[in-house]
Sequence to fold (256 residues):
Amino acid sequence: MGTSERKPFIAANWKMFKTIGEAVAFTEALQKEVGILADREVVLAPAFTALAAVRKVMALEGFRLAAQNCHWEEKGAFTGEVSLGMLGDVGCDYVILGHSERRHIFGETDDDVARKVAAAFRHRVLPVLCVGEKLEERESGQTTAVVERQLEVAIRGLDPSEARELVIAYEPVWAIGTGRTATPEQAREVHGFIREHCGRLFDKDIANTVRIVYGGSVKPENVDALMAQPDIDGLLVGGASLEVASFRRIVQFVKL
Fold:
């Protein structure tokens, strides 16, 4: 599978923003403005409280629902957690796992993320696996080592059929919410490394199938240049996904 055959994946991670009403209004407005999408996937990731309501109004082809996190256990005494069975029940297609805010604010380990990835595949909720380095790690030349470690631990137990469906999000931590964005060339370099490493862990065919998306201060002004890079298959968008106008422009990126 070549670049042209990997369907672009454009996701809105709303984090701890939007009430149910706001999430529903956004979803309805975006669908009205962009219409049916046959050549790209648009994924909305609201807070847990809004998942069911957003799914109810998500009516057009090309739109998908994602959760922002999960627990790896099926059920149990885990106050405040949500299981994959619950996410599947509410209609989630994807779940974002290993986001830097989960790793660095809430202390999730590589092993925690690996457990979640495995659980997601068991429940047929596809994982969007986030990997990425902090500023001090980039400045000390550890970018590929950090990404390699996070990737290997998270996907070491996957079988080839699962690996094909994985979405990997490269998110340099120093670019998330800071206004600093990796240049398209910097992002492409790491994306290329991730694809090569997937080839080593599995095979070249799987490496060419996996979608690798970029996250980190994505905005309308840089979307076209990012999406022009051959190993960037989509975007995981934070702040710029909170307004319909800015996210619509990102969804409707121009192929350079």
Notes: The radius of gyration is 17 Å. The mean pLDDT is 95.
